[in-house]
Amino acid sequence: MIRRVVFAGLLCLGVTAALGWAVLERPMPVENLPERVASAMPESGVEHPITAVLLNFRSYDTLLEIAVLLLAVVVALALREAQPDRPEQMGLDNPLLRAVMAWLLPLMLIVAGFLLWAGAYQPGGAFQAGSVLAAAGVLLRLAGVSAGWLDNAVLVRAGLALGLLTFLGIGMLVMLAGVPFLTYPAAHAGTLILVIELTLTLSIGLTLLSLFRLNPPYADDPDDSRTQEAPKP
Amino acid sequence: MSGALSGYLVFAWSGVLLFGLGLFGFVAHRHIVRRLLAFNIMGSGAFLVLVGLAQDGRGVDPVPHAMVITGIVVAVASTALALVVFRRWYRASGRTDLPEDT
């Protein structure tokens, strides 16, 4: 144990020193990316550079990252054990949480919508809005509220795949107009990006929420019997 | 080198420190959940370095920022997936650490 800690300490110091040296002696980037992004902004369809990079200039990266999210939830679905979903067993079913939820839930939905819309001209966008949506869903579940439509496997799977499919579909649709994959015509870029972001928000929110829901809090014991927890001394 | 401790590098420095801390935890602990937490701290450090170095005096570079924002969501999803796998592992074997070949 001591050897492990000493080894970890030495390794950590060495790597930190190397990283610090790399930060100090970093080379100046040859390509002036901020300027290139700024000069391409007018044809991107949005006004915020990060959203433009995410969904227009480097949308291929974003497409693959959405695919990674979908892959994660598919693997989690495959590893799930067959057990009934029982939100009332979450153990947090207290009246205070429910009362706070009644205030928080509408606010969270409004914030998610605002973040999605604001992404066009200030920090915000599909990833942030999707995270807020997922947080609302997790809170609902912690409060013991069951959402019936989330048990509909076909509906949930369609929702999970919606973002990636829309992204791919729009990316290929523009090929009909004779431009390369995922290149939006400047005239319609804003609308296309908004459609993609809307579906991405729903899918990201549903993905994160599903990953949480797939893990009911019981059935963890190796011996398959839910034994009474012994009081701690 | 002048400007090494200037204001905009404070994020990169914090990221370097976080990465080192996370690496220490990752190697020193054997419990898989602790390792997962340490790994997430390392990831946060990497994100901070990326964001902190994205400003080089010619304006803020939006490309690393866009990468980090997707990276955060992917990191959350992969952490959740890791927890699913860990729970299955614990249920199947009753162990909270992984066997090591020494």
Task: Describe this structure as you would to a colleague.
The complex is a heterodimer of chains A (233) and B (102). Chain A is mainly alpha-helical and 233 residues long. Chain A has eight helices and no strands. Chain B has a single domain, classed as Helix Hairpins. Chain B is 71% helix and 0% strand. Chain B is elongated, with a radius of gyration of 17 Å. The chains are: A mainly alpha (233), B mainly alpha (102).
Describe the secondary structure blueprint for this structure.
The complex is a heterodimer of chains A (233) and B (102).
Chain A: H1 2-24, H2 33-40, H3 49-57, H4 59-79, H5 95-118, H6 126-142, H7 153-173, H8 189-213
Chain B: H1 10-28, H2 32-52, H3 62-93
Number of helices of chain A: 8
Which residues of chain B form runs of ≥5 with pLDDT under 50? none
Ends apart, CA distance between termini of chain B: 44 Å
Please indicate the percent range of residues of chain A in DSSP E strands (runs of 2 or more).
Answer: under 5%
CATH class of chain B equals Mainly Alpha
Shape of chain A: globular
Name the overall outline of chain B: elongated
Number of strands of chain A: 0
Radius of gyration of chain B (CA) equals 17 Å
Largest sheet of chain B: none
Estimate what percentage of residues of chain B fall within beta strands: under 5%
Question: At CATH's second level, what is the architecture of chain B?
Answer: Orthogonal Bundle
